[in-house]
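User: My advisor, Dr. K., asked me to get a structural model of this assembly before our group meeting. I'm new to this, so sorry if the format is off. These are the inputs:
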Amino acid sequence: MLRVRDLNRALDFYTNFLGLREVRRHDLGDATLVFLTDASGHYHLELTHNHDGRDYALGTQFGHIALHVDDLDAVVVEVEARGWWFRRSNPKNTTRYIFVHDPDGYDIEILEAKAPASTTT
Amino acid sequence: MLRVRDLNRALDFYTNFLGLREVRRHDLGDATLVFLTDASGHYHLELTHNHDGRDYALGTQFGHIALHVDDLDAVVVEVEARGWWFRRSNPKNTTRYIFVHDPDGYDIEILEAKAPASTTT
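Assistant: The format is fine. Below is the predicted structure of the whole assembly, which you can bring to the meeting.
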């Protein structure tokens, strides 16, 4: 569960850019909870929007959310079109990825790699 | 990805208590990355242990990790046996859950509910 300041901005990022879809929404009056998943449906990412306008401290302890994509170059094209900051993986790495920030400043890693279920462990 | 201060304490919590299993470990010299998953294998929880003893600020923005179990009462028995703090869901809620803290203070929600993949959306 991630707390977000602007639900519409967050949903634009997580659905229109990252491709997740909304599967459930709870309007609690003083807060709205939105549950997202990907094509697999195997997990939920919960966004919590508190309506009282409170601010948050991101801290340094939580790291990032990582997602896998088939075509990282296509993602980079879109990130550049949107004019967002991003950081590329070291070319020496066998795994290619970029880091971007979501609208609330969370680090989001986008990897060109098979999803965890397909890895040999 | 979650940053942890004491890898062994964190692994005891995430594997022995929560039942996740280690699927990959990268020793980078100045840091150790451990990837965990559950029986489904559909996601990874990455624990990062930096070896320089740095401290972290938890902040207020990241919420929690949630996991589903079949038998919450059995989990409560174990939590009580370990003498840990926990908070129960409101009895009026249709979903039963508890919140505990991992060794680094992260909020962990344990729900008695079907996993996301089984929900009707």
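One thing worth pointing out at the meeting: Helices of chain A lie at 7-17, 72-82.

User: Perfect, thanks a lot.
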